Amino acid sequence: MEVRLHLTFVILLLFIFWTEYNAHLSPNGARDMALIGIVLASVAVHEIGHMLVASGAGLIPKAVILLPLGGVTVFDESRIAKPEPPLKAWKRELQIAAIGPLVNLVFALIAAGVTLAVLPEVQLWKWPFFQSSNLARSLVWANLYIAGLNLLPAYPLDGGRILRAYFARGIDAGAATRRAVSITHALAMVLMVGGLFSNTWLTMVGLIIFSAAQLEERAVIFQSVLDNVRLEEVMLTDFATLSPADTLEDALDKAVHSLQDDFPVVRGSDMVGVISRQRILEALRAEGNGYVQAVMNKLFEVSVRQESLGSAFRKLTSRNLSIIPVVEDQRLVGIVTLQNLMHSMSLLAESRKLRRGES
């Protein structure tokens, strides 16, 4: 599983440096980094709780992006057999969402108990609760803050996920997410503006929530493209092919004069294999000149014009493929490569976002 840190962690680090310097008039880099480490550990515990419950419900996490208040987890949709009824999906979302704040609350109670037993001089209820000068107290309150803030109806925080799932009972998932994101944007703006007149930490929280909502909105647009665009709209129709009788040197020469990285291998009107530019080079270096037939991959997937981008993308990623031929009546009419698929999806997602902004 892939784990990434969101840019807001860097922003939070700079914010902590600034606030701590203003409070003490001297930097303390080691303790400030330790404070960031506490936030990261608290968020990681929060997301682990989510993933354990999600795995028990049959959802396999594929990647997670960690933000200072939680995370955005991408699940392997190829393992979901069919869409669930809205009520069942809402109950499952409620279970997954509830475990995050609960885990942080339990973690905070354990940390408080250990702190009071080992360091009785630490005053857990003394303000400020979250400060680099008292890391033990900060550990307790970081988890309490994360648990409490995740109850806000701000997507993708846990309260916002429950709100989105509630909306999805009557409308499609994309529209439900957009409605939840709109509410989140309004709440984030209130926090950011309110923080300017009270506590700058509210502004920081608002910025993190706004960034998380933007991240989820892009994911929804991306998923919309995957589900609704057909291969015939993005497949390459002007492409080069190779023959199994071509020599590897001839194939390399053709690859040099083409923008393709992957080539279908065709005998007459029948497709018999696929080969990549990298495979041609590796075979030439290892064995010298030979024939394409000897080194081409004879196991490949095919798609049809009407197949969705999502289906093709799952084939490419789950089976570690780099090219999918598109056929019609057993005739090769186009190709889809991972490179052109990613390029097409990003352009289509951006065009849909622009069209929605104009309407």
Please describe what this structure looks like.
This protein is of the alpha/beta class. The protein has two domains: about 1-230, no CATH class; about 230-350, CBS-domain (Roll), CATH 3.10.580.10. It is about 60% helix and about 15% strand. The protein contains twelve helices and eight strands. It has helices spanning about 10-25, 30-55, 85-120, 135-150, 160-165, 175-195, 200-230, 250-255, 275-285, 290-295, 310-320, 340-359; strands spanning about 1-5, 60-65, 70-75, 260-265, 270-275, 305, 325-330, 330-335. A three-stranded mixed β-sheet has the order 1-2-3, sandwiched between helices. Strand 2 (about 60-65) and strand 3 (about 70-75) form a beta hairpin. The protein is elongated. It starts with a strand and ends with a helix.
How many domains would you count in the coordinates?
Answer: 2
Spans of at least 5 consecutive residues whose pLDDT stays below 50 are none
What is the total tally of β strands? 8
SSE string, helices as H and strands as E: EHHEEHHHHHHEEHHEHEEH
Average pLDDT rating: 84
